[in-house]
Amino acid sequence: MRDNARKDDSSGLNHRSFSAFISSGKVRWLGLALAASVALTACTGSTEKVSKVRAAASQTVPVSVANAKLMDMPVYLVGLGSVTPLNSVSLKSRVDGQLESVAVKEGQMVRKGQLLALIDPRPFQVQLDQGQAALYRDQALLRDAKLNYERFKQLLQVSGAMSQQQVDTQASLVDQYQGAVRTDQAAIDNAKLQLVYCRITSPIDGRVGLRLIDPGNIVHAADPNPMLVITQLQPITVIFTLPEDQLPTVAQHMKKGVLSVDALARDNQTLLASGKLLTIDNQIDQTTGTGRLKAQFNNPDNSLWPNQFVNVRLMLETRKNSTVIPSAAVLRGPQGTFVYVVKPDKTVEVRPVTVSLSQNNQALIASGLGPGESVVTDGQDKLQGGSKVEPRVGGPPAGGRPPGSGSSPSQSAGSSPS
Question: How many CB atoms lie within 10 A of CB 187?
């Protein structure tokens, strides 16, 4: 029985050892299987990424393109200006009296010498009549004094009936009456002048502003407020400012001829008027570092109004036969400015370019690009050298960003105009 028990124990021990061995083998096989699965998954994911990159590289990207043009490009300087009239007159009365009538309407265009208002002239007419009466009286006294002087002088010479003193006294009286006559004549001239001042006329051609006093009121020469304001609108001037660094360039171009100036509305797009540059101020404002310039405009349609703020565009020169592309096509990278050039096989090439001037959404290319070559203006963020594209002339591609939203150099990226 002991032998049987030992056999049973021995068999039980062997069974447990075998079970442990089997269990250990399962764990090892499970680990190997897991490792193989992970490796397979990694290989599969890597393959998928490579496939996606290759697919992306071979994908056609819709882009907007534009052709480089050979054209004459004007060079502008821009500044902020204020419209200033050549002449603006505040009309006041030069005499005291009642305003009898106003002969013009508010906003009316008037000519030089045209009657604007009338002040009651009757008091000054009375003064004129009084001065003329005094003149007649003193002229009569002067004639009588001259006759007596001639008599006294003759009596002195012929019979000695008159003394030299009497003759001299009479000569002095003649001089006094001559002075009185001149005084009377001056009083008459003054009365006539006051009558002229009663008629208020326009000293310039211009436009009548709002009426500041109504007929029937008493006006005085010492009144601080005017009755009317006449402002000349044709021609009219604009005073604008430019940085002091640009003034020498402007002065050099002024020696070559008259410079054209455009006045634009606040949207910087609407052209209000075109004129010419008159002069540069003789001083620079130290607080702002700018100089003032004055331009004149004919203003035939009265599009410019006094004290109006406008954007001023001064044309320095026109660069002939320049290669010009949209500014949106120019990008900036670590090596400088560049563009994406579309080749005939509809692939793009990264082309370094030199921008000499950028303004009005146009860039003047000094080197790196020739006329007629196509450049990408929108969709550059999806491109790299060798990418295939589907060019679309005009607006942005479907799903693309609007033109100008990419990085593009501003005017400061190019050299300043000279």
Answer: 17
pLDDT digits (tens, 9 = 90+) for 1-59: 444 444 444 444 444 444 444 444 444 544 544 454 544 444 445 445 444 445 445 58
Whole-angstrom distance, CA of residue 410 vs CA of residue 360 = 10
What integer pLDDT is reported at residue 394 of this predicted model?
58
Closest CA to 219 of 335, 100, 337: 100
In the predicted model, residues of the chain with pLDDT beneath 70 are 1-58, 394-418
Percentage helix, strand, coil for the chain under 3-state DSSP, each rounded to 5: 35, 35, 30
* Residue 363: closest CA among 75, 79, 80: 75
Residue type at 191 in one-letter notation? A
Q: Which CATH class is domain 61-71+322-413?
A: mainly beta
Q: Return the CATH fold of 88-230.
A: OB fold (Dihydrolipoamide Acetyltransferase, E2P) (2.40.50)
**What is the topology classification, in CATH, of domain 78-85+233-319?**
Elongation Factor Tu (Ef-tu); domain 3 (2.40.30)
The whole-number pLDDT of residue 19 equals 47
CA angle, residues 360, 361, 366, in degrees to nearest 5: 95
Identity at 256, one-letter amino acid code: K
